[in-house]
Amino acid sequence: MMLLRLAAASLLNRRLTALLTIFAVALSVALFLGTEKIRTSARASFADTISGTDLVMGARSGGVQLLLYAVFRIGNATNNVTWESFEEIASRPEVDWAVPLSLGDSHRGFRVLGTTDGYFEHYRTRGDRALELAAGTRFDDLFDTVLGADVAAELGYAVGDEIVVAHGLASFTAHDDKPFRVAGILKKTGTPVDRTVHVGLAAIEAIHVDWQSGARMPGAAVSADAVRGMDLRPRAITAALIGVKSRLQIFTLQRAINEYRAEPLLAVLPGIALQELWGIVGVAETALTVVSAMVVATALLGLATMILASLNERRREMAILRALGARPRTILTLLVTEAGLICLAGVAAGAGLLYAGLFALRPMIDSAFGLYLAIAPPTGAEWLMLAAVVGAGVLISLVPAVRAYRMSLADGMSVKT
Question: How many angstroms separate the CA atoms of 168 and 174, rounded?
Fold first, then answer.
């Protein structure tokens, strides 16, 4: 207790240097903890991209590839699923609901998704959060579109505006004879939905009525009014989201789809495919954690440097302590205690700084990036990390402490020039 009071008084006497060191440790701890919070929150947001969907079905390829193009709008399908196959699978007794997805076209760099109203009813993000409209309505007309939040914000669209869909992803040809009207704009979800232009599945057929092999058929132009009276039953879709009536039936249905004889199909469980995908991109989070750990190490090195640099100024102080009966190990313990107090104060300040930042910035981060940062007490792993920071600070302080331990009484009492 005496040493603790002595260490606190010593730090108080050098308050400016001590405060700066505590601030450096606090910043590094806040960065370290913040990185962990962002990493775990990003992982949770990643897993919450799709929720409530039991199976994702598409043409036979890889599970990750199917998930990438059907959910994350990345890449293209190797093949399509015929509408007859989709209807047959959707009518199976295990299926509760099935939402078709048709991808292929684009609008100014954003993917266009042809789907049905069921998409807005069954697609869930962030646990069980349904898609919500920020303005307007869902599809009311054949050529209505519902925009994701990022599409509307970046392109400056409002309800009632007209947009033209381009054929393909990097095509210079557009379906300019059949423009769409912005009927609704979705609230931000922090998922690929924000960067998607949603149109009706029949509208995808409508804009391709007079197209063949990726080009408009000469002399076969069909007006927007004329196409409304045509049979717009889809011939093929890109993928489908499926919900089953009972979780016990998921694997039965998955096996039935994977063994479907009419055409090669693949059904994957989104959770398993997401884990595989996260394993691929997980190297980035490891790199981020290593960088933040290096920042903490730098701050602790600064702490050791501060103590080491102050030793020369404190030679007389040490000598007086020795003259009063303090043993060398008492001097060593005193310096280690000072380092421990600085680390404890830095860790506490860093944690406080982080949580204050979370409370202040979470709404803005959620709105701007769709990243929901959970505010919860430190987990067991985080408590271990904080303890490791204090332990590392104490260990590294042994370097200057051992140096002080070796100082002789005569060396301390002599005045050096």
Answer: 9
C-alpha to C-alpha distance for 145 and 276, rounded to whole angstroms: 33
Q: Which residues pair with 113 in a beta bridge?
A: 103, 198
The residue type at 78: T
* Cα(236)–Cα(17) distance, integer angstroms: 70
The distance in angstroms from the start CA to the end CA of the chain is 36
Alpha carbons 25 and 392: distance in angstroms, whole number: 12
- Distance separating alpha carbons of residues 340 and 343, to the nearest angstrom: 5
pTM beyond 0.90: the answer is no
Smallest CA-to-CA distance from 243 within 71, 56, 53 is with 53
Task: Determine the Cα–Cα distance for residues 201 and 238; give it in Å rounded to an integer.
Answer: 11
> Cα–Cα distances in Å, from 186 out to 135, 138, 156, 159, 336?
7, 9, 14, 11, 57
The identity of residue 311, as a single letter, is: L
The closest of 254, 154, 232 to 197, measured between CA atoms, is 154
- Residue range 317-328: average pLDDT? 77
Is the separation of the CB atoms in 401 and 314 below 8 Å?
no
Residue 361 and residue 352 in contact, taking contact as beta carbons nearer than 8 Å: no
Cβ neighbours around 353 below 10 Å, total: 18
Give the pLDDT confidence of 377-410 residue by residue, as tens digits: 888 888 888 888 888 888 888 888 887 777 655 5
Query: Locate tokens 């309800």: which residue?
Result: 159
Distance CA 264, CA 267 (A): 10
Identify any residues that bridge with 174 across adjacent strands, giving them in sequence order: 166
Other CB atoms closer than 10 Å to residue 242's CB: what's the count?
26
Going by C-alpha positions, the residue among 252, 248, 254 that lies closest to residue 266 is: 254
Scored b (16 or more CB within 10 A) or e, 307-331 reads: bbebbeebbebbbebbeeebebebb
Give the C-alpha distances (Å, rounded to integers) separating 306 from 6, 331, 364, 398.
18, 16, 38, 13
Take residue 152 and report the two structure tokens written for it: 């509307």
pLDDT at position 417: 47
pLDDT for the residue 198: 95
How many residues are present in the chain? Answer: 417
Spatial separation of the C-alpha atoms in residues 123 and 53, rounded to whole Å? 7
